[in-house]
């Protein structure tokens, strides 16, 4: 890459944005642009996996909540909250989703409402606030998980990652392999067969192997005294 092109990208993408990448590679602008490009590739790979996991989990939770609401209140539209379980913020999110689901004079259906609810809506239903009200009915989505926090923690981490990707923020300095494992674990816990399908198509580890070596070195933990240091590539 020519110096002129690197400087142009620094100007157009902003020095502040590329500064994070420059700091990770010791200030070299060419390497920073390469890392920026790799970060975008990794974001794209993760976005696909996150999308599959989000749709799988929200539909599974929707099904479980529908069965509970129908059985308990004779109302399949759980999002109407016939038992007055949800807090005001969730009511606001649902109201917005229902409005968006019926734009252009479309008929409201539960599927359309669920599709309009943001990713962040679902982890909140697994917080401590709903430990006694919702978790006893939602735990059936993940029969191998006994504790609510086993599901909430990974799902909240994926929500944070999704927000960073959605705002084009750096993710190269996040524990990407660990996050990939959390995503695939959640999918497998929800439906093993679907989890296998998602995992077989996930490209996160492939892209991770192509991360620039200079960045791997910068992110590696410091060597302890007397510890063997591997040869540089």
TrEMBL record:
Q: What is this protein's record name?
A: Abi-like protein
User: Which species is this UniProt entry from?
Assistant: Micromonospora rifamycinica
């Amino acid at each position: 890459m020519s110096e002129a092109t690197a400087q142009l990208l620094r100007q157009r993408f902003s020095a502040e944005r590329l500064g994070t990448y420059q700091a990770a590679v010791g200030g070299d602008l060419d390497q920073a642009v390469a890392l920026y490009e790799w970060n975008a590739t990794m974001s794209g790979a993760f976005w696909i996996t996150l999308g599959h996991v989000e749709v799988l989990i929200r539909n599974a939770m929707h099904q479980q909540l529908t069965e509970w609401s129908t059985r308990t209140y004779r109302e399949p539209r759980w999002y109407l909250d016939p038992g007055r379980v949800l807090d005001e913020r969730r009511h606001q999110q649902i109201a917005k989703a229902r409005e968006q689901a019926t734009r252009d004079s479309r008929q409201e259906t539960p599927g359309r409402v669920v599709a309009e609810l943001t990713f962040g809506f679902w982890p909140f239903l697994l917080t401590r606030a709903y430990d006694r009200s919702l978790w006893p009915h939602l735990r059936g989505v993940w029969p191998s998980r006994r504790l609510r926090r086993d599901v909430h923690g990974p799902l909240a981490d994926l929500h944070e990652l999704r927000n960073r990707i959605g705002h084009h923020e750096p993710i190269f300095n996040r524990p990407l392999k660990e996050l990939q494992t959390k995503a695939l674990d959640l999918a497998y816990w929800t439906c093993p067969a679907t989890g296998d399908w998602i995992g077989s198509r996930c490209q996160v580890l492939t892209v991770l192997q192509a991360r620039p070596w200079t960045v791997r070195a910068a992110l590696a933990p410091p060597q302890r005294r007397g510890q063997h240091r591997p040869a540089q590539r």
